[in-house]
From TrEMBL:
Keywords: Acyltransferase, Antibiotic resistance, Transferase. It comes from Streptomonospora wellingtoniae. The keyword Glycoprotein does not apply. Residues 2-178 form the N-acetyltransferase domain. The keyword Chloroplast does not apply. Acyltransferase required for the direct transfer of medium- to long-chain fatty acyl moieties from a carrier protein (MbtL) on to the epsilon-amino group of lysine residue in the mycobactin core. It comes from the Bacteria. This is Lysine N-acyltransferase MbtK. InterPro entries: Acyl_CoA_acyltransferase, Acyltransferase_MbtK/IucB-like, GNAT_dom. GO terms for molecular function: acyltransferase activity. The lineage of its organism: Bacteria, Bacillati, Actinomycetota, Actinomycetes, Streptosporangiales. Pathway: Siderophore biosynthesis; mycobactin biosynthesis.
Amino acid sequence: MFTWRRIGPQDFPLLCEWLAQPHVSRWWNHETSVEAVERDFGPAARGTEPSQDWLALLGGDPVGLVQRSRPTDYPEELASLSAITAVPAGAVVIDYLIGPPDRVGRGIGTRMIRAFIDKTWHDCPEAPAVMVAVVAANTASWRALEKAGLQRVASGAMEPDNPIDEPLHHVYRVDRRPVADSRPDTTSAGR
């Protein structure tokens, strides 16, 4: 079972280590210095930026990172995503990684995505959908999304995180399931 903790400055050395791993750096083209991690993750950790960075713990061990934001808080991201597909009002987007190399390829990513979507439904009751844009070349990532129950809703050009990638991205989405109406059906009662 996953537990979650907001990323704090104490986690920056771990993020530096994870971002330097070849399986992460291939898709998260990010500087790995403490200064770069502080620059990019610090505002969310301090609550001065609307995005949220969550450490995924499995059996108490850190195994991954999930970022959550609303596209409406980032106009460039909203414009890029909206150019490919409709973005429902209140939707959230996520991004994720599995950090330790020995945890890759074991189905943890799929389970982590599923668990975080459940967390999002609980944390963000007004969110109608969770969306993810993933570079088309990252087959393992979009397969994990599909196994987690997300559907590919569009494909189109977006600027890739890593300049070696083509701009083609797939957009995945899962919608909140409507809560079943628990009131009894009285439309035919007494007839």
